[in-house]
Design goal:
- The chain has one domain: TIM Barrel (Alpha-Beta Barrel), CATH 3.20.20.210.
- The protein is about 45% helix and about 10% strand.
- The longest helix has 24 residues.
- Strands 1-12-11-10-9-8 form a six-stranded parallel beta sheet, with helices on both faces.
- Helix 7 crosses helix 8, helix 8 packs parallel to helix 9 and helix 13 runs parallel beside helix 14.
- By secondary structure, the protein is an alpha/beta fold.
C-alpha cells in the first residue's frame, strides 16, 4: 500500500506528539499508581475519563485528513490520544506504544438477527430468531478465521510509518465479555428470556449451556491461532472500565504465546438485572464460571447494580479482582462487602455531564460522598458511558479536575 506523503506527515506529526507526552515523568508515576492499585496496595482514589460515544463530538471522523478508510481509522485513534494528553487531566498514562489489531473474521451463530436502527445514535430493535424449542437446532458455533497475511501487512505498514517514533506491537482485544447474556438476548429476546425463567427453564438452560461451550471453543480457537494478546500494560483498558497494569500477569509458564490465564477478562450480565440472586446464580453465573476460571484476573459487572449479587460473585469467582459499582448500586453496601480485598470500580452517573446543563456542585458533592463511603477501599472513579457531552468536550476536563482534586485530598 502506497501512503501519500501528506498522510505520512500527518501520522508522524501525531506520533511525535504522543512520544513526547509518553516521555514526561508523570506517565511513570501514573503507571506505578495503577500497578499498586491493581495489586490492592493503598493508593489515593484513581481517576479515569473514557469518552466512549462522545468521541464523535470530540474527534469526529470528519476531522481526519487521510483519504484511505483504514488510515483514517488509525489517524482518529492517534488524535484521540493527543486530546487525552492535552485535555484529560486524569490518571491514564500515555505510553509510547501503538497496537495493531490482527485481522480476524468471526462468523455468526447460524441464524440471522435482523436489527432496525434508529436515527439517534445507538438505538435499535431486533427480531430474535429463536422463537421456539425447535429453532435451537439452527444454532452453530461461530467460525473464526485469522487473516495472517493481512495482519502482517498492516503491522509492517504501521511499523514503516511510525516504528522509529513509537513501539509498534500486535495486539488488541477481540472479545470484551464472557457474560453470555447479551448474545442470549439477541437470539431469544429480552422479554421472552425473562418469561423463560418461569415458563421454559429447560430451553433457557440449553441455550446458556450452548453459549458457554461455544465461548469456550471461541477463546480456545483464538489462543491456538495466536490471536490473544496481553492486557497488563499501563494503558491496557480492561473489563467495563479501569486499567489492567499489573506484574501478576502473565501467569507462570508464559513463553510468549498468550493464554487466557495470562489475561484479564470480564464477566457481567446487564440483561439479567431484573432477576434475583437465586435466578442469577441458576441461569447466568453457573454458566460463566467455567469461562472465568480460565482467566488470570477477572473484572465483574458493568452497568447492572451488583450490591445484591456481590456475595455470590465474591464467593464463587476465586480470581475476581475488580468489581463495577454502577450508578444503580448501593455504594455503601458495596464498600462494606468489597473493603480492601477488591478494586472498587465506581462508575458515576454519566447523565451528570451529558445533560444539556451540568450542575458542577452536584458532581463534586456526589464524588465527595463516594470517596467518603469507600474510604479504606481500593477506589477508582471511572467516567464512561458518555454518549454525548452536547458538543462541549470541556466537560470531561472539568470532571477530571474535580475528581482529581477530591481524590488527592482524600
Amino acid at each position: 500500500m502506497t501512503v501519500a506523503a501528506t498522510d505520512r506527515d500527518t501520522f508522524r506529526e501525531l506520533a511525535q506528539r504522543i512520544a513526547e507526552a509518553a516521555a514526561e515523568p508523570i506517565q511513570a508515576e501514573r503507571a506505578r499508581l495503577w500497578k499498586d492499585h491493581n495489586s490492592l496496595r493503598p493508593t489515593r482514589p484513581l481517576v479515569m475519563a473514557w469518552p466512549e460515544g462522545a468521541w464523535e463530538e470530540i474527534v469526529p471522523e470528519s476531522s481526519c485528513t487521510c483519504s484511505d478508510p483504514l488510515l483514517r481509522q488509525w489517524e482518529q485513534g492517534l488524535r484521540m490520544l493527543v486530546f487525552r494528553h492535552e485535555s484529560l487531566p486524569d490518571d491514564v498514562p500515555i505510553t509510547n506504544r501503538i497496537l495493531v489489531r490482527p485481522v480476524v473474521e468471526i462468523g455468526d451463530f447460524g441464524v440471522e438477527v435482523p436489527y432496525t436502527h434508529g436515527a439517534n445514535r445507538g438505538s435499535y430493535v431486533w427480531d430474535a430468531p429463536i422463537k421456539e424449542a425447535k429453532d435451537f437446532d439452527k444454532l452453530r458455533a461461530r467460525e473464526v478465521a485469522v487473516d495472517r497475511a493481512e495482519s502482517r501487512r498492516r503491522l509492517e505498514l504501521v511499523h514503516d510509518l511510525l516504528g522509529d517514533i513509537l513501539h509498534v506491537e500486535p495486539g488488541g482485544s477481540l472479545w470484551w465479555t464472557c457474560g453470555l447474556t447479551q448474545t442470549l438476548i439477541a437470539l431469544r429476546g429480552l422479554e421472552q428470556s425473562m418469561l423463560d425463567t418461569y415458563d421454559n427453564p429447560e430451553l433457557l438452560h440449553r441455550l446458556m449451556a450452548f453459549l458457554r461451550d461455544e465461548m469456550l471453543r471461541f477463546i480456545e480457537t483464538l489462543q491456538s491461532e495466536g490471536a490473544l494478546s496481553l492486557n497488563n500494560a499501563p494503558d491496557s483498558y480492561v473489563g467495563s472500565g479501569g486499567l489492567g497494569h499489573t506484574d501478576e500477569l502473565p501467569a507462570d509458564g508464559f513463553d510468549g504465546r498468550v493464554r487466557p490465564k495470562d489475561m484479564w477478562g470480564l464477566g457481567e450480565s446487564q440483561e439479567f438485572v431484573g432477576v434475583g440472586p437465586g435466578q442469577f446464580d441458576e441461569f447466568v453465573l453457573q454458566y460463566q464460571l467455567p469461562l472465568m476460571a480460565k482467566l488470570g484476573l477477572v473484572c465483574y459487572g458493568c452497568c447492572e447494580p451488583m450490591d445484591q449479587k456481590l456475595d455470590l460473585v465474591l464467593a464463587k469467582v476465586p480470581n475476581v479482582r475488580r468489581v463495577s459499582i454502577s450508578p444503580w448500586s448501593d455504594r455503601q453496601v458495596a464498600a462494606e462487602k468489597l473493603g480492601d480485598r477488591y478494586v472498587y470500580s465506581w462508575k458515576p452517573n454519566p447523565a451528570m455531564v451529558c445533560a444539556p446543563t451540568v450542575d458542577w456542585d452536584f458532581v463534586a458533592k456526589t464524588t465527595r460522598e463516594t470517596i467518603e463511603l469507600a474510604r479504606g477501599c481500593r477506589l477508582e472513579m471511572i467516567l464512561k458511558d458518555t454518549h454525548t457531552v452536547c458538543s462541549d468536550p470541556g466537560r470531561f476536563t472539568r470532571w477530571c479536575e474535580i475528581a482529581r482534586e477530591l481524590a488527592e485530598g482524600a
